Amino acid sequence: MRECLLYSDCRVDELGVEYAGTSSTTVSGRTCQAWSSDTPHSHGYDDDEFIDGSRAAAQNYCRNPDDPPYEGGLWCYTTDPDMRWDFCDVPLC
After folding, report:
1. Does the predicted TM-score (pTM) go above 0.85?
2. Fewest CB atoms within 10 A around its CB: which of 3, 47, 63, 86?
3. Model pLDDT for residues 8-33, shown as the tens digit of each residue
4. CA dist., res. 73 & res. 76, Å (int)
5. CA-based diameter of the chain, in Å?
6. Are the C-beta atoms of residues 60 and 24 closer than 8 Å to each other?
């Protein structure tokens, strides 16, 4: 798990690395795919890349697990087979 403060209702900066909330809908209204699933979109993320401690614990929540963090901020893979990923709109604290 990353060493940082956990925020559940908001993000403290644009990247959202510390965000540990339960938002699971993208800006386009799509449902986020579970991080522990490779369906409908496969990926190569490992458990230690999540603030939650594992892909299963991250459920289908908006995250920014990249190292270094993705410049665009919080995002997720979607359950829509025609849209691989999308950004999430989590407010700043």
Report:
1. yes
2. 3
3. 788 988 999 989 999 999 999 999 99
4. 10
5. 35
6. yes
- Determine the structural domain holding residue 63 and report its residue range: 1-88
Q: What is the number of structural domains in the chain? A: 1
**CATH classification at residue 31:** 2.40.20.10
Rounded to whole angstroms, the Cα distance separating 87 from 13 reads 15
Instruction: Retrieve residue 12's tokens.
Output: 């403290």
Neighbours of 6 (CB within 10 A): 12
Phi, psi of 47 (to 5 degrees): -55, -40
Which residues, in sequence order, are bridge partners of residue 77?
Answer: 85
Residue 58 belongs to some domain of the structure? yes
Residue 93 lies in a domain: no
Return the number of other C-beta atoms located less than 10 Å from residue 65's C-beta.
22
- Chain segment 53-81, per-residue pLDDT in tens: 999 999 999 999 988 888 999 999 999 99
Q: CA neighbours within 13 Å on the CB side: how many for 62?
A: 29
One-letter amino acid of 52: D
